[in-house]
Amino acid sequence: MNRPYVRRMIPEPGDADREVPVNETFHEQTDDELTEKELKQVEANDQAIQTILLGLPEDIYAAVASCETA
């Protein structure tokens, strides 16, 4: 019913001392920047993924678990 939570990119001040000045840069949301509801959704997503992975044969689990993306 709910889609997986996707962490937002948070703007932060850029580095004025760079050769080419940058007004702002971005970083991925950290756990400290998540609301309680968002953090619960992230944890539920992680649990769902682990449950699915545990149902796989060991050799396939090892191949899938080592991937960062689909």
Brief characterization of the structure:
The chain has helices spanning 36-54, 58-65; strands spanning 9-13, 24-28. It has 70 residues and is α+β, with helices and mostly antiparallel strands.
Secondary structure elements and pairings:
Elements lengths: L8 E5 L10 E5 L7 H19 L3 H8 L5
Antiparallel strand pairs: 1-2
Q: How would you characterize the overall build of this protein?
A:
With 70 residues, the protein is α+β, with helices and mostly antiparallel strands. It has one domain. It is 39% helix and 14% strand. Strands 1-2 form a two-stranded antiparallel ribbon. The chain is elongated. The mean pLDDT is 81.
According to DSSP, the number of beta strands is: 2
Low-confidence stretches: none
Helix and strand sequence: EEHH
Alpha-carbon Rg, integer: 18 Å
Total domain units: 1
Q: Structural class per helix/strand content?
A: alpha+beta
The total of helices stands at 2
Average pLDDT over all residues: 81
Strand order of the largest sheet: 1-2
N-C termini distance: 21 Å
Shape: elongated
Q: Considering DSSP H and I runs of 4 or more, what fraction of the residues is helical?
A: 25-40%
What amount of the residues lies in strands? 5-15%
**Main sheet specs:** 2 strands, antiparallel
